[in-house]
């Protein structure tokens, strides 16, 4: 099982949007997908409500989990619940229990997508310790890019201290407003500063049809509107590159 962690330490960057679409993408590519929602805001759980079941995500930290297998390609969601708010202490036993449960899930699932909260804490740390890949969606507004260096330090630090098998897929500019000169300038500055080592080769533009699809709890590429199909094409091009990078890593 390949474990991809969608992580950023700022809210409002579209983490859950990318995470749920990744789950749909891998399921459509005939993978058995485990979606873990570690964000108490539970946006991913709400969007994927048709696939939720036991156990809830919080139990991955507290005890061994008997995760029901999927008999066919699809998605199973370990949902976010208020119990996640009580998981605060950085405890090695909690982190190891989470990692052990993820390893056990590899017998029944092909891909795990982990959506994380927007503040760095034990839930983010546990996800990174258990993960194989991490993707960091970023917004191109001025305030949203201020914390990128701190984000990278945390990811690199986890890889050096706890998980040498963690592969950083890159910072992925999300919700790019193509008509905004300021956002285009910020993107250019990011390319100059971080280059191909840290910046993912691809962007996801801002499209109103993505919000419409989430409201209908469907992937944007499944909507019939021409604008939605175009948004889906853009997103799938990015995901194709991600999938290829995951196979190569």
Describe this structure in words.
The chain has a 7-stranded parallel beta sheet with strand order 3-2-4-1-5-6-7, sandwiched between helices. The chain has helices at 15-28, 43-47, 92-105, 122-130, 148-161, 181-198, 208-215, 226-248; strands at residues 2-6, 32-37, 74-78, 111-115, 133-138, 167-176, 204-205. The protein is built from 8 helices and 7 strands. Helix content is 42%, strand content 16%. It is α/β, with parallel strands linked by helices. The mean pLDDT is 91.
Sum up the structure in keywords.
249 residues; alpha/beta; 8 helices; 7 strands; 42% helix; globular
Kindly summarize this structure in a few lines:
Helices cover about 40% and strands about 15% of the residues. With about 250 residues, the chain is of the alpha/beta class.
Structural class: alpha/beta
Main pleated sheet: 7 strands, parallel
Residue-averaged pLDDT? 91
Q: What overall geometry do the principal axes of the alpha carbons give? A: globular
Calculate the terminal CA-CA distance, rounded to whole Å. 14 Å
Q: How large a portion of the residues is in β-strands, by DSSP E?
A: 15-25%
Give, in spatial order, the strands making up the sheet with the most strands.
Answer: 3-2-4-1-5-6-7
N-to-C order of helices and strands: EHEHEHEHEHEHEHH
Number of helices, counting only DSSP H or I runs of 4 residues or more: 8
């Amino acid at each position: 099982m390949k474990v991809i962690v969608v992580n950023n330490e700022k809210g409002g960057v579209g983490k859950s949007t990318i995470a749920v679409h990744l789950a749909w993408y891998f399921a459509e590519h005939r993978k058995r997908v485990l979606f873990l929602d570690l964000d108490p805001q539970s946006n991913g759980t709400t969007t994927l409500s048709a696939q939720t079941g036991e156990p809830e995500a919080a139990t991955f930290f507290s005890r061994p989990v008997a995760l029901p297998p999927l008999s066919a390609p699809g998605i199973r969601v370990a949902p976010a619940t208020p119990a996640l708010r009580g998981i605060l202490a950085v405890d090695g036993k909690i982190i190891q229990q989470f990692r052990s449960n993820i390893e056990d899930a590899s017998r029944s699932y092909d891909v795990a997508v982990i959506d994380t909260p927007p503040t760095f804490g034990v839930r983010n740390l546990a996800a990174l310790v258990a993960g194989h890949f991490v993707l960091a969606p970023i917004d191109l507004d001025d305030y949203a890019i201020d914390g990128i260096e701190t984000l990278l330090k945390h990811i690199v630090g986890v890889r050096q201290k706890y998980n040498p098998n963690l592969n950083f897929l890159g910072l992925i500019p999300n919700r790019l407003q193509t008509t905004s000169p300021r956002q285009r300038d910020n993107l250019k500055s990011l390319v100059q500063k971080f280059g191909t080592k840290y910046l993912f080769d691809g962007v996801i533009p801002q499209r109103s049809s993505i919000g419409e699809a989430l409201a209908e709890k469907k992937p944007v590429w499944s909507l019939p509107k021409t604008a939605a199909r175009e948004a889906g094409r853009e997103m799938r091009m990015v995901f194709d590159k991600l999938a290829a990078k995951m196979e190569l890593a």
